[in-house]
């Protein structure tokens, strides 16, 4: 896990460089951390015995993920000359652009049947 101090240091170091605006960068965040381990550490820090403090593990709720992706499938990390900072670039080998028919979207009105509106919106997924 990257500390707040290190993240601030890297941001300041990288912002001092003369880079064109509009680029996306990310950090090397280190190895993933399980929330259960954080909870166990908090219990230890507050002198609670993990055996007497029950940790309830639940299922994922709708929209929750087990892991957070820092880049999408259509992007890639490229190394920079600053350790632990990566440039995020669109993968040139993947076709990510689609043509959107805005006229069809603009033609939707509040008076249209919900099924029609839903079908138009679903066609873009």
From TrEMBL:
Residues 2-88 form the Polysaccharide biosynthesis protein CapD-like domain. It comes from the Bacteria. It holds the Pfam family Polysacc_synt_2. InterPro entries: Polysac_CapD-like (IPR003869), Polysaccharide_Synthase-Rel (IPR051203). This is Polysaccharide biosynthesis protein CapD-like domain-containing protein. It comes from Pseudotamlana carrageenivorans.
């Amino acid at each position: 896990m990257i500390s707040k101090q290190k993240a601030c240091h890297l941001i300041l170091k990288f912002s001092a460089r003369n880079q064109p605006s509009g680029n996306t960068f990310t950090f090397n965040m280190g190895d993933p951390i399980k929330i259960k381990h954080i909870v166990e550490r908090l219990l230890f820090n507050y002198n609670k015995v993990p055996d007497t403090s029950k940790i309830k593990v639940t299922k994922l709720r709708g929209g929750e993920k087990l892991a957070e992706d820092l880049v999408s499938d259509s992007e890639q990390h490229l190394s920079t000359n600053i350790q632990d900072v990566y440039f995020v670039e669109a993968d040139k080998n993947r076709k990510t652009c689609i043509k959107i028919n805005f006229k069809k979207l603009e033609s939707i009105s509040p008076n249209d049947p919900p099924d029609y509106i839903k079908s138009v919106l679903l066609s873009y997924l």
